[in-house]
Every structure is written in structure tokens, then in C-alpha cells.
């Protein structure tokens, strides 16, 4: 049969193609981009603060919701239109024209099967008068079907073809349809199709890819401009010991604060009047600095807004306040990039690739700046000002001789009556807001474990070894320190601590018992001992069985001697009998030793099994920990922990932490700062570094810094006794492999040199006889 390619005239094949394409595109897009409503905690409003600044912040966030809602509405409308189009295409595909595939002339003419010729002609004429192309109600396609059906019932050849092949025209050629409608290739529509092709594939697609590429190459992985990162590298390398005020200057010079890169910031004519007014109010702004880009107008403006934010100065809500919100929103991400740049410079300087190494103070000043901006406080201010309704005039009540409260933890540990006396100038609602905020602040417990993972003795640290410091962070809140049921904080803590400790001890014992019984180890140890005894007897029986052929060997050799007539063969036989006798004596001695040691081995089996069980537990733990860490790495790093009370920060801020190891004596950093973004309850951070090359006792400092609160940083000293690394033995088997092989080769060469022709002939004769 002939094969024929043709375009889809009816459009049904194109509908199937379009249906499959829309389904493949819409299903994943709907899954990933359909807006989902977050389940809000019903008690969230009760726990949240309701101070004036928090209400203003909630109002700003509510204003941003219409934009987010509009984006969600646009996404929803696009997805709904796509699904409606999919349903329409599916409906059109169901309207496939089956009249040629299932051709039935009786059904087309509307007559019964077996009708006479007169009835066929009557029905044909009746419908032909209605559907003739010359009539107003005419239909050319339907008229052709009627004619074809009439011929199939009246013409003999057509009727025979219909009965045999199901088609009055006879067997048709196999046709392969192209899933495109025929109007695409018509001459009338050729220019339109060409314009659409050029518009999509030669204009729209290259432009979108070019825009995406030009934007992507400007940003780093943390969505920070590469120009900003290069500026950080330059200034921190130029000034290794950078003070806090200069860090603010460098932060203000970030390219993100330029109008070109940030549409939220605007340059207004009113800036020429309002910004000089800030210069007079804000001291130490250093607006006359001539360094580029620190002297640029956008940089000076951003610096002034940061200083005004830290001083909590009120700004014009229609002009500078909008710019302050845009600047402050970007600061945490930029400060994190600063920390990355400084740590990389310190590592490069430690490796000897650059001459100047940034000081540790520069890194810590950059980290200190982040909670300052989040809480809108200078570092020399009291951390108690992070609480709502607390002003500087009230600090005299906390610093009195009776209370002497300087930190938030000391305030949480006060009794209820004493705490209320400190806030005696506040109303009940205001005091309730203070307690809500104080109860949600973090109470962090830091534990460390120092070990050498890849060594047999994990607790022994040798010079040059890779040390792993596992930092365990457990986060609670100050609510555990506040009063419970009207009792004072001290009594409640004292009453609750013994119970908590007993429960923790019980849980630790249960976990240790579970760890001691691995999955592959049977529970009944008594059966193991019995099996060990039986197994110890079996080798002795096996040794007795082996003795028999050894004792009978000399008798067999005597019979062989009679057959050996030549003197050479007799000499060889004597040598073999002597060797067999010596081997039999050695085997008897070994059997006696095994029998004597069997009883001792039975008693030592149980001890060895217990040791093996403990070793298996340790191996299982070592094997399981990397698997859990790999699973966490594959799952991705979460950025949701706890919401921070920060009424002056324009967005919802999550609570993050920096963790790193330092050497305070040399002012160097041992490990790069690890940014913990998922500390909800507990988290473990492994930190690895190389131990000092010289043996001795060293004291390193573990630093845990908050990027959200002031006064919550923790510093913990870690003492390490670094011992001298053991020297490798000179006669180590690892280094004698080549020498052993050489000796074997020399011995074989010597034997081959001193072997005579007679010996070779004797060996050949023995092999032939065998």
C-alpha cells in the first residue's frame, strides 16, 4: 500500500498534540506556583506584642499585602486560564470525526437495514434537497457523505468494496498525519506564520534569555551584587583593623543603595534640604570623606539613614522614611556577605596568598552591626531597650543597688514582684507586652565535644591532626525562667530543675541501652557461649582426623621405596620422609596447644563478644552520623526558626546565629563562620580544623553570636592538650613491600643458577611416573 503524509484537515490530531503539551506544562506549574495559604497560629495574636511601634510595623506589612495578593491573583488567573484551555482542547479532541473510520450508509441516509431501492432513492432525494450546496441550508461535506452512502447501497462495485473493506472507495492508502492544521501551510497565511515565528524564536526568546543572563551574572549566590562584594574585598584588605563606624561607611556604599540597582530608593529635590539637617543632628557621620565610593551622594545618604535608624530618629514619612525602610531591609543580607568576604580574606592570608590579613575585630564588628540594625540600637546602649515601652529614663530603676539588672536574662530571673517594681511606671497592658516579648527571647545552651574522628583514639589530639569540634546548640526561651503559678522565678526554677534532671538522666539511660543492642546482634548471650564451646571442640576433632594420613605416610613411603630402584630416587624419598615426620611432630604439638588453649578460649569468648558489641555500637554510631548529615544536606537548609521582636525593622526577621572558632592570642580564625538558620530546638554543627604543629596546651574560643538580639552572644573557652605525633617505625611493612619482592626474585634466581641438569631430569621423571 502507498504511504501518504498529509496535514490534519479536521484538526483532531493537532488537538491531541496540544492537549498533551498543556498537560505536561500545567501540572508542574500548578504544583509549584499555586498560592498556598499559611496556617496561622490562633494564639499568635495573643503572644505578639501590641505596642505602638509593632502596630506601625503591622500597618506597613498590611500595605505590602495588596502587592502580594495581586501577584497571587495574577498567578491564579493564568493557571485557571490554562486549565480552561486544557478542558476546551479535551472537548474538541472528543469531537473526532469517525464517519470514515466507521462508515455506515444506512445511518447516514436514515433508513433501516434491508430497505428497498425505492426507499433508498426516496431518502437520498429528501436529504439531498436540504443539504445541496446550492441551497441556503446546504452543506458540501454532508452532501458528499450522502452521495457516497447512496452509491454504496445502489452501485454493485461500491457495495462490494464497502462490504469487504468498510469503504465504498476500496482499500485506501496508509496516511500519516502531521499534528498541525492545514491552514498553517496555506499561501494566504504564510506571511502571518512567518512573522509569528520570527517574533517568538528570534526576538522574544533571545531577549528574555539575554535579560535573565545579564541580571544573573551581576549577583552572587546570596543575591548580592558582585560589585558590592568586590568593594568589600577591597576595603577590608585595605584596612585590616576596621572599626565599627567605618564598617557602617562601607555598608552604606553598597551598590544596592543606588537608584540604578534599587527602584525603591528615590532621589528627590527635598533630599538637598533634609539630608544636611541630618548632618547637624548625627555626630561622627564623616560626610566629608573623599574616598570613592564613600563620598558619592547615594553612599552619604544611605550612611545618614543608617545612623538615623540606629539613633531611632523620626523621619519624614513621605520621603526619607521610605528610603530608610528600603535601606534597612537590605542590610542583614549585605552584612552576611561582609562576613563571607572577611573570612575568605583571612583564609587566603593564612595560606600566604595575600600580604595583609583582616583582623578578627573587623569580622566581629561586622557581625555586631547586624543585631544593631535589627533592633535599631547602638552597641553602647543598654540591651534592655530592646523591650517595648522601655525608655532610657526607666533604666535608673534597673541599675539600682537593690536589683542591679543589666541584662535581659537577669531581668527574667527576677521575682514577679521585683520585676513589676522595675516597671512600675507602665500600665498593666504595657507590662503584659513586656512579659510577652521577654518570654519569647532565646535562652541558649552551648555544649562542645572535641575529637579526632578518623583516629583510633578519638580523645587524643596529636600535632597536625584534623580536629572535629561538634557544637550542640539547644534553644529554649525565657518563659522557663519567668514565674509559674504566681511563684517567684527562683523558687520555680529550683523546684523544676531536679525533676528535669531526673527525667533527662532516665532518657539518657534508655538511649544508651538501645544503642548497646545493635540490629544485627542477637539478644540471648547465653546461647552464644554454648555455641562457642561447641565450636571450640570441633577444631580438635578435625586435627585428630588430619593426624591419620600423616602417621600413615611413612608406611606408604616404604612401599614406594621398593619400587624406586635408582639411587637418586631413593635419596629424594629419604628427604621426603624426614620432612613428613617433622611435619607430623609439629602438628601433634599444635594439637596439644590447641587442646590446652580451648578451655581458656571458652572463658574469654564472652568477654570478647562484649567488647565486639561495644565496638560495633561505636562503629554503628560513626556510620549513622554521616548518613544523617547527608540526608539533612540533601533536604536543604531551612531558614525558619523563631520570629524576632524588632518593631523598627520593616520585615519579619527570623532568629539566626553565627558559630565559629578563634584563637584570641593570635587574633586569628580557625574555622569559617557557620550561619545557623534553622535552630528551632536543637542543632549540631561540626567544625573541623588542623591542630597546631607544636605540642602543648592551647586555649581556643568558641563564639556564638546572634544576628537579631543584642547581649545574647556567648563565648566558651576550649582547652586542648596537643601531644606529639608518634613517629612511624622504620621497619614498617608498608615500606618493605618492594624489598620483599626483590629478595624473593633474587632467591629464585639463585636457585635457578645452582640447579643442575641431573636434578631437572629427576623432576621430569617423577612427573612422568605420576
TrEMBL record:
It is found in: Endoplasmic reticulum membrane. One of its GO terms (cellular component) is Sec62/Sec63 complex. InterPro entries: C2_domain_sf (IPR035892), DnaJ_domain (IPR001623), Ig_E-set (IPR014756), J_dom_sf (IPR036869), Sec63-dom (IPR004179). Keywords: Chaperone, Endoplasmic reticulum, Membrane, Protein transport, Transmembrane, Transmembrane helix, Transport. The keyword Endoplasmic reticulum applies. GO terms for biological process: post-translational protein targeting to endoplasmic reticulum membrane; SRP-dependent cotranslational protein targeting to membrane. Residues 583-603, 754-770 have a biased composition (Acidic residues). Residues 104-166 form the J domain. Residues 522-540, 567-577 have a biased composition (Basic residues). GO terms for molecular function: protein transmembrane transporter activity; RNA binding. Pfam families: DnaJ, Sec63. It comes from the Eukaryota. Residues 502-625, 726-770 are annotated as: Disordered. Residues 502-516, 554-566, 604-614 have a biased composition (Basic and acidic residues). The chain crosses the membrane at residues 14-34, 73-91, 191-213. It is a multi-pass membrane protein. This is J domain-containing protein. It comes from Artemia franciscana (Brine shrimp). The lineage of its organism: Eukaryota, Metazoa, Ecdysozoa, Arthropoda, Crustacea.
